[in-house]
Amino acid sequence: MENILKVYVDFIRAFENSLKIKYNISKNPCTIAGSLFERKGTINGIEYWFHGTGCTAEKDGVIYAYDISIFVDDEIQFSLWEFSEFIRTHPTYSLLKYSSEDIENELAKLIDKGILSWLVIMGRIYKTYRVIT
Fold first, then answer.
1. What's the CA gap between 62 and 101, in Å, rounded?
2. pLDDT tens digits along 20-60
3. Cα dist. 115→3, 48, 108, 111 in Å?
4. Could you give the dihedral angle defined by the CA atoms of residues 32, 37, 42 and 48, in that order, rounded to the nearest 10 degrees?
5. Distance between start and end Cα atoms, the chain
6. DSSP assignment, residue 33?
7. Which of 13, 18, 40, 119 could form a disulfide linkage to 126, CB 3.0–4.6 angstroms apart?
8. Is residue 70 scored above 90 in pLDDT?
9. Cα–Cα distance between 5 and 25 in angstroms, integer?
């Protein structure tokens, strides 16, 4: 699961970097979508749409849905459903037939390894994963 997470995060970082280069910005594109550029568009064959503090990007039928922290610059956050959609729509990872429970158990191992953590706001734990490495 660590490799699958790396593919997911690397794609998101590359996608955001493409927008930063195109629009000559240093801020995370999620924070300025709708003002400097349209909230919905296409770049490098990637269809994207920003919503709230997140984005859904799709390339070749693979869905990369995620959120950006409002507290930590460029920190990727995601729900179990968002990550499950990535696996479900990926041509290789979908063949692994992971259930939501399987994915949740594997992500728990990544929390134990310090790669992910739960989102905590004012002492309250949310079932949202934070990428911390």
1. 21
2. 999 999 888 888 788 888 889 999 999 999 998 899 999 99
3. 12, 26, 10, 6
4. 30
5. 15
6. B
7. 119
8. no
9. 26
Residues recorded for the chain: 133
Residue 104, phi then psi, degrees to nearest 5: -60, -45
Model confidence at 61: pLDDT above 80: yes
For residue 50, the enclosing domain spans 2-131
> Predicted confidence band at 93 (pLDDT cuts at 50, 70, 90)?
very high
Q: Are 55 and 49 in contact (CB under 8 A)?
A: yes
- State how many domains the chain has: 1
Beta strands in 1-133 (DSSP E): 40-43, 46-51, 54-59, 62-68, 76-78, 116-121, 124-131
